[in-house]
Amino acid sequence: MQVEMAGREAVPKTRFGVSGPITCRAIGSGKYLFLQAHSGSWIIVENHSVQDVQALLEAASSRLLDRFPDALETPLVAELYRAGLLSVNGRNAWDHVDFENETSRINTLILKMVGYCNIACTYCYDFEAATYKNRLTVEQGKKAIRGTLENAGPRLNILFHGGEPLLAYDAITDLVAYAQVEAQKTGTELLLSIQTNGTRFTPEIVKFLIKNRFSVGVSLDGPESVNDTFRVDFKGRGTWQNITEAISEFPELASQMGVLTTVTNANAARLKEVACHFRDWGVRCWDVTVFQAAGRATKKPSRFAPDLDELITSYMDLLDGVEADEFGDMEIRPVLHYVRNVLGYERPNMCLRNGCGAAKELVSVSADGTVEACDCISEPALSLGSLAEGGISGALSSAPAQNIRSRTVRNLTPCTTCDWRTFCGGTCLAKTGDVTKVDTGECAVSMALFPDILRRLANSDRLFRYAERFADPLAH
Fold it and tell me: Taking every annotated instance into account, which residue ranges of this chain make up the domain Radical SAM core (predicted)?
């Protein structure tokens, strides 16, 4: 703390300041939002307090507030400091936050075990004819695990992916055993997960998944009529019945299983209906991924792309459902991803963060041994290298990796003046394949949802209480 000298006695001096430009906007019901866009700091006040807040911010900015060293003891000044809008002696409530995710270490390794699959979803983003027949060898997998542990933080999640990863079940068992031994050597907490189409479960596989505490994600797009629009077999027949029959044989897997839904024009207007369907089915965790024009869908993306207005309305419907407690203890991650980014500085979802997790927290290895910053980034110029040449460490230090890590809202032109930039992180790089661009569709969704979430938080604590129910150490 700085001091002024009065004779021989040191007198503490409190210096107040404003933590960057702050905007004020009405958000309905006679309430106003004060927002500092760089940090995402905010406070909501009643109409009658707006002038008081503005006066205090002006007094802090002009150093007038410094004349009152006990000002921090007054409730409104203390609240502005806790909210991160005021600084005291050059420090504020978010000094500890790494806003551009610069100090993160790898916490997720995706192993794409095979390029092939036993079904043929017509929108599959991961389909590549040139690598379809490839299979990651056990030795390649071990090299990826070893290299990732060398670059990992205290916790590492290994996600087995594909194609259909359970077509390589024998290799997965070997790699899990290897990873458990290696993680113990490095003192790394190991988490295991798998994303599957759900058709390959057997008693042996289910026993293995339960024993090793896998988080199991099953890809399903909704009720049968919705799911079977695009999730079909090689003869164009729907897959819903086969998947649900396979899953229903193993109720003991339910506590470890969640559902991932791809949002297309077949379900974009019906997301709440889809969520309720899986709720009634007993699913405890549900998430979505919005259709990406890659793989099989590259030639005719308009056949699958969701309507943005329908998607935004569906998100609003989900928020309504959560506030009405229609989902109980079911984890509705499409809501939680956005709400958590508003409620805290840490912003746990690596895809909705300034300086996204690609090549910082996440690394992906394809079935041919190619190393990617994220399994969704398909642009060849952004490939990081290969296991054969440089391995994981070489890939993470490559020029493409550094280029990807340099992408922040500071250097994305549409974001520099946007109030919501820290909440959304500049949209997903995978959607554009260009570190200098943002995805306009995802941007529109964020610009609709974040103000709406803050409006809801101004009127009740229901979203806050819902978010508190779920611990999510790796909120992808």
Answer: 102-331
Same domain, 88 and 173: no
For 145-176, the pLDDT digits (tens) are 999 999 999 999 999 999 999 999 999 999 99
pLDDT of 5 over the 70 cut: no
Contact (Cβ atoms closer than 8 angstroms) between residue 119 and residue 364? no
Residue with tokens 């959304």: 424
Same domain, 134 and 62: no
Q: Which two tokens stand for residue 211?
A: 């024993």
> What is residue 472's predicted lDDT score, i.e. its pLDDT?
57
| pLDDT, tens digit, 9 for 90 and up, residues 350-374 | 888 888 899 999 999 999 999 999 9
398: left (phi over 0), alpha (psi -120 to 50) or beta: beta
Kindly tell me if the per-residue pLDDT of 95 is higher than 50.
yes
HSE-up of residue 331 (Cα within 13 Å, Cβ side): 21
Distance in angstroms (rounded) separating the CA atoms of residues 430 and 378: 7
Give the DSSP letter string of 295-320: GGGSS-GGGTPPPHHHHHHHHHHHHH
Cα 427 to Cα 445: distance, rounded to the nearest angstrom: 10
Residue 102: pLDDT band (50, 70, 90) is low
Find the domain containing 42 and state its range. 16-94
- Find tokens 């229609």 and name the residue: 326
Tell me whether the omega of the peptide bond preceding residue 328 falls within 30 degrees of 0, making it cis. Answer: no
Count each helix (H run) and each strand (E run) in the chain, helices first: 16, 17
First to last CA, the chain: 40
Q: Measure the CA–CA gap between 444 and 429, rounded to whole angstroms.
A: 15
Residue bearing tokens 């500071």: 410
Q: How far is CA 244 from CA 164, 218, 219, in A?
A: 16, 10, 11
**Total domains in the fold of the chain:** 2
Give CA–CA dist 301/112, Å, rounded.
Answer: 24
Residue 144 domain-assigned?
Answer: yes
Q: Burial letters for 321-341: b for 16+ Cβ neighbours within 10 Å, e otherwise?
A: bbbeeebeebbbbbbbbbbbb
